[in-house]
């Protein structure tokens, strides 16, 4: 499948909101780090402590932090940033204000250094917000419906995404299942599958589905 990027190096982001279980939150942070997420946006989740600075020892399991123990040092050293918001609208506004790519103007120059035309009316691409949800409009993850840098938002463990969450999404992806088991996957498992696929897409890898060896 062709890999069409409007960004030279598309980046993944993760939005954590309306997640009930602490272990799922920890797992989401750790899985995000495993697949190249360097910024996580947290909306609400007021009972959760994401402050890495109040842990005297990253190996102290009695710490009040809800961060994965293995992640505390990395967050302290700036390898990952967690940004908190009270409201979803504030989070969305912030995401849409960010550059879609780290060096957007340089990428324009790379396309055609001799014919750069800047217009105040030209619309720059924005980071897409994609919900991972079973919905009639959802696109199969195997089709890689990505355009550029993307912030992925997961649904609640029991109820899925709220109407408010869905209203701010630019689109949705679903994960195909081939067995006769549960209709829904654990939220952190689903996040891992989506981020893994995005990682390969962002590198231009060809992922073969259904090939038997």
TrEMBL record:
Boundaries of every tRNA/rRNA methyltransferase SpoU type domain copy: 118-196
Entry annotated with the keyword Transferase: yes
Keywords for this protein: Methyltransferase, Transferase
Matches recorded under InterPro entries: Alpha/beta_knot_MTases, rRNA_Methyltransferase, SpoU_MeTrfase, tRNA_m1G_MTases_N
UniProt superkingdom: Eukaryota
Pfam family for this entry, one: SpoU_methylase
Matches recorded under PANTHER family: OBP33PEP LIKE PROTEIN (PTHR43191:SF7), RRNA METHYLTRANSFERASE 3 (PTHR43191)
Protein name: tRNA/rRNA methyltransferase SpoU type domain-containing protein
Species: Skeletonema marinoi
